[in-house]
User: Which sequence fits this backbone?
């Protein structure tokens, strides 16, 4: 059955490039849907600022740390 999809709600998602317009929008939508999201950036401070602006429990980290702590990594 193509509609019998696995439950991925317990997986964390990292969005590398999460401070740019595409990454930020994707991170927001995933977090709003209930996914645990970390945004990554070359600058951890910039990622933390973006995460605070996004809300919904989004966290920020540098790209390497974002990738380490995420089950799924999206490059935006």
Assistant:
């Amino acid at each position: 059955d193509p509609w019998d999809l696995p439950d991925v709600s317990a997986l964390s998602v990292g969005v590398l490039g999460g401070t740019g317009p595409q990454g930020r929008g994707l991170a927001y939508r995933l977090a709003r849907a209930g996914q645990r999201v970390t945004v990554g950036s070359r600058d951890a401070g910039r990622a933390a600022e973006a995460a605070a602006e996004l809300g919904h429990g989004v966290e920020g980290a540098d790209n390497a740390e974002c990738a380490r702590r995420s089950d799924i990594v999206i490059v935006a």
Notes: The mean pLDDT is 97. DSSP finds three helices and four strands in the chain. Helices lie at 21-32, 44-54, 63-69. Residues 51 and 71 are 18 Å apart (CA to CA).
